[in-house]
């Protein structure tokens, strides 16, 4: 019974997905070459997470010297299907990898590989709207906790636990076209189950804001203090200059009485 | 003789008289190179005729300024044109020269047809027409300080005698009278004649007033003499100075042009709102480049202006947090240092609120850095003034207010060091400010030690 239900819902989802893909295919034709024109003054923000996880094998592999398995990914911050508005994501790996350009057109947008070194990965996100330019994110693949050169065996713990290096980013759609607006607002859920990230970004956000506010207050106080001191210094300079010129003007007068 | 013999094929000399050696020998002698003087080579591209017109050391003949029409005359030996007519008779006859005053009679050969005519050379006796004055006129109009009647008369007589040839007149000026320069004589003469002309109301070419300015003439001649007497070194020096002046003027013009262009761009920017990011950045860069050269003044401390592009299209939040290129390397390092001190990340989480706060904070940091620099400059100025005062007035000592001394370590060590003091570690090592700071800090440290003991 349950399997049937499960199967049915699964089929339903699959169907919906196919439908949506067909829709997508038609949509660009529907809106015309300018994608329906831009809606001025409208801003839509889509937060996302990008980064990589890496896991140490435990030893250096004999054939190619690889030591880690890593996965670089881009996923939306919220539980939604990015492929609605994202046409494809292009991951450009190091040139020593075969097929260094990896194009992904459907979620999950991730590339899994093995290797031994850290390098910069260029992530380029293309959108369904042909009038929108792709955005580029640069991510440095992180494999080691400590700087390379030190043996991983020296680092206690985190031995078999995967290393995570992920960052929060926001896509700002300024004045999106009508077509884009539709795509951005009609996203579906990605998974039915729980959706969470390795890093607690909410907490990070709160902490960062608190720190920034603290720092700001501190600096403002400093600035006020400095301004006061500058004023005092300026006044003292004029006072000193007066004294000297007074002395030079009238050499015989004893000026010791002045403070 | 030799060729006759040759033709008749009589005995020939054993060796031909004109031998190869003779020819070559002559050849050897003939091109005795005259010591060639330095001949300036004609520059390429210049026509031969044009080059010949140039005056140079090897070619000392200046071309004539006016073309001559000496078609028949010139260096060609012209043959005398003799007419084929009858010979005219000549006669030995007496003549007088009207130009002479004594009426002496001379004799010369003359053509009989020309007997009665005037002596042809008399017409060359031109005399300058001088005005003369009567006693009454003199006493009424022509009295002058420094010139007596007698002197004026002598002057006029000389002028008449020498046809207003001033160098001669000046030379013949009697030595027993007061020494007069040419300008003095001329001045007096022209004053007199002008006065007379005015008085007699003469018009036309006779009545033309000659404006002779003696002072001007004196100065002009002095200047000419100075010019003539310059040593070659001085001439060279003058030339160099003129060149330098020209360069300075050119640079000034360039600078003015640049500022004008900048002004135009700035005004264009304020007029039209559609401004591309690159040109804006260019202006910011050039503006800041100009400001960077001047030391920071209180007015120029403004913090960072982040380019806020409200352009359509997709962008990343982190792009809003990027520092504009206008922020100098020193400031970037200072910001980084301060952020680590405040235990903040260099690029925090890219949320809108965070982005805004972060940008504001960094702007404030730059502002603080600038204020700190200004304060240090002022404090240093105070120090120098204090020392100046102490050296000039040994019994008087100016006190710098406590709050302005740097690194006052007298207070409790637990006092949280102001963030601004931490900037000391950031300043690049080779600025003169830093050296002064080090020296001042040293002196402060010494004072502290003294105070403690």
TrEMBL record, chain B:
Regions annotated as coiled coil: 235-265
Alphabetically ordered keywords of this record: Chromatin regulator, Coiled coil, Nucleus, Transcription, Transcription regulation
Keyword Manganese: no
Locations listed in the record: Nucleus
BP term (GO), one: negative regulation of transcription by RNA polymerase II
GO cellular component, one term: NuA4 histone acetyltransferase complex
Superkingdom as given in the UniProt entry: Eukaryota
Gene3D superfamilies: Homeodomain-like (1.10.10.60)
InterPro entries assigned: DAMP1_SANT-like, DMAP1, Homeodomain-like_sf, SANT/Myb, Swc4/Dmap1
Molecular function terms from GO: transcription corepressor activity
SMART domains assigned: SANT (SM00717)
Myb-like domain span: 143-195
Name of this chain's protein: DNA methyltransferase 1-associated protein 1
């Amino acid at each position: 019974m349950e399997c049937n239900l499960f199967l049915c819902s699964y089929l339903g989802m699959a169907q919906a997905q196919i439908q949506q893909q067909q829709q997508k295919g038609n949509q660009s034709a529907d809106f015309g070459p300018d994608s329906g024109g831009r809606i001025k003054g409208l801003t839509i923000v889509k937060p996302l997470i990008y980064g990589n996880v890496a896991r140490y094998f435990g030893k250096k592999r004999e054939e190619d010297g690889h030591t880690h398995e890593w996965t670089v990914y881009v996923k939306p911050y919220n539980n939604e299907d990015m492929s609605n508005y994202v046409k494809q994501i292009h991951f450009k790996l190091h040139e020593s990898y075969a097929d260094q350009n990896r194009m992904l057109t459907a979620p999950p947008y991730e590339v899994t590989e093995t290797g031994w070194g850290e390098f910069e990965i260029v992530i380029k996100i293309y959108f369904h709207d042909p009038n929108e330019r792709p955005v580029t994110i640069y991510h440095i693949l992180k494999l080691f906790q400590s700087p390379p050169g030190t043996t991983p065996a020296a680092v206690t713990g985190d031995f078999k636990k995967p290393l995570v290096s992920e960052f929060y980013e926001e896509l700002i759609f300024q004045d999106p076209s009508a077509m884009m607006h539709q795509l951005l607002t009609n996203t579906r859920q990605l998974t039915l189950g729980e959706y969470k990230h390795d890093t607690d970004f909410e907490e990070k956000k709160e902490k960062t804001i608190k720190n920034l506010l603290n720092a700001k207050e501190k600096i403002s106080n400093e600035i006020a203090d400095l301004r006061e001191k500058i004023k005092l210094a300026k006044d003292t300079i004029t006072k000193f200059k007066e004294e000297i010129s007074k002395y030079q003007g009238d050499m015989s007068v004893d000026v010791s009485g002045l403070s | 003789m030799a060729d006759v013999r040759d033709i008749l094929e009589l005995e020939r000399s054993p060796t031909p008289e004109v031998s190869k050696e003779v020819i070559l020998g002559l050849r050897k002698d003939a091109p005795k190179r005259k010591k060639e003087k330095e001949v300036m080579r004609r520059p390429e591209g210049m026509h031969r005729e044009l080059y010949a017109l140039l005056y140079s050391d090897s070619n000392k003949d200046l071309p004539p300024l006016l073309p001559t029409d000496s078609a028949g005359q010139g260096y060609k030996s012209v043959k005398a044109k003799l007419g084929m007519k009858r010979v005219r008779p000549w006669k030995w006859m007496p003549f007088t020269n009207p130009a002479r005053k004594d009426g002496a009679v001379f004799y010369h050969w003359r053509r009989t047809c020309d007997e009665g005519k005037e002596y042809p050379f008399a017409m060359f006796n031109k005399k300058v027409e001088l005005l003369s004055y009567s006693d009454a006129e003199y006493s009424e109009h022509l009295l002058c300080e420094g010139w007596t009647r007698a002197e004026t008369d002598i002057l006029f007589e000389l002028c008449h005698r020498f046809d207003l040839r001033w160098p001669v007149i000046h030379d013949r000026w009697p030595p027993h009278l007061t020494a007069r320069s040419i300008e003095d004589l001329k001045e007096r003469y022209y004053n007199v004649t002008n006065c007379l002309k005015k008085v007699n109301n003469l018009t036309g070419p006779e009545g033309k007033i000659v404006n002779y300015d003696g002072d001007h003439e004196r100065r002009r001649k002095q200047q000419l003499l100075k010019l003539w007497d310059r040593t070659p070194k001085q001439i060279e020096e003058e030339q160099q100075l003129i060149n330098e002046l020209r360069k300075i003027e050119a640079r000034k013009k360039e600078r003015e042009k640049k500022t004008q262009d900048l002004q135009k761009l700035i005004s264009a920017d304020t007029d039209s709102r559609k401004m591309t990011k690159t040109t804006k950045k260019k202006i910011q860069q050039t503006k800041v480049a100009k400001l960077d050269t001047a030391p920071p003044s209180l007015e120029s401390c403004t913090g960072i202006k982040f380019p806020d592009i409200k352009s359509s299209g997709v962008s990343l939040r982190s792009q809003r947090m990027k520092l504009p290129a206008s922020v100098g390397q020193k400031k970037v390092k200072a910001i980084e240092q301060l952020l680590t001190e405040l235990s903040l990340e260099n690029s925090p989480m890219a949320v809108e609120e965070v982005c805004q706060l972060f940008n504001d904070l960094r702007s404030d940091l730059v502002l603080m850095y600038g204020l700190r620099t200004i304060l240090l400059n002022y404090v240093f100025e105070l120090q120098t003034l204090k020392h100046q005062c102490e050296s000039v007035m040994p019994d008087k000592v100016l006190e710098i207010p406590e709050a302005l001394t740097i690194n006052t370590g007298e207070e409790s060590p637990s006092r949280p060091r102001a963030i601004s003091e931490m900037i000391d570690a950031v300043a690049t090592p080779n600025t003169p400010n830093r050296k002064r700071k080090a020296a001042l800090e040293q002196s402060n440290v010494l004072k502290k030690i003294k105070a403690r003991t």
